[in-house]
């Protein structure tokens, strides 16, 4: 049984022939499945591939430090509808 619910409005997507797929990366830890360690192994492997430049991250913008100004800027970048990739805010 799910512990919460999510409502998604798909009305505008149908006219654009868009598909909606849902994949939740935390389902193993959320539901405490017996194969939980496999999530750790997958993330370790991804980190290794990123470090070796065998795969590329979708991060296109990094803001630092974590503060109200950078939170507003990141939010505006995503809201304007022209953001390509991911924006990340880090505390360096």
Please, could you describe this protein's structure?
- The chain has one domain (14-89): Medium-chain alcohol dehydrogenases, catalytic domain (Quinone Oxidoreductase, Chain A, domain 1).
- The model has no long low-confidence stretch (mean pLDDT 85).
- Helices cover 39% and strands 10% of the residues.
- By secondary structure, the chain is of the alpha+beta class.
- Strand 1, helix 4 (68-79) and strand 2 form a beta-alpha-beta unit.
- Strands 1-2 form a two-stranded parallel sheet.
* Main sheet attributes: strand count, strand direction, barrel closure: 2 strands, parallel
Order of helices and strands: HHHEHE
Instruction: Give me the secondary-structure category.
Output: alpha+beta
Q: Briefly, what CATH class?
A: Alpha Beta
Give the CATH H-level superfamily. Medium-chain alcohol dehydrogenases, catalytic domain
The total tally of domains equals: 1
Brief account:
The chain has about 90 residues and is α+β, with helices and mostly antiparallel strands. The protein has 4 helices and 2 strands, in the order αααβαβ.
């Amino acid at each position: 049984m799910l512990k919460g619910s999510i409502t998604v409005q798909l009305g505008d997507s149908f006219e654009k022939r868009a598909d909606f797929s849902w994949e939740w990366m935390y389902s193993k830890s959320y539901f405490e499945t017996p194969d939980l360690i496999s999530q750790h192994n997958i993330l370790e492997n991804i980190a290794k591939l990123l470090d070796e430049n065998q795969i590329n991250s979708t991060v296109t913008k990094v803001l630092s430090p974590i503060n109200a100004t950078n939170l507003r800027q990141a939010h505006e970048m995503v809201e304007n509808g022209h953001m390509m990739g991911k924006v990340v805010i880090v505390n360096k």
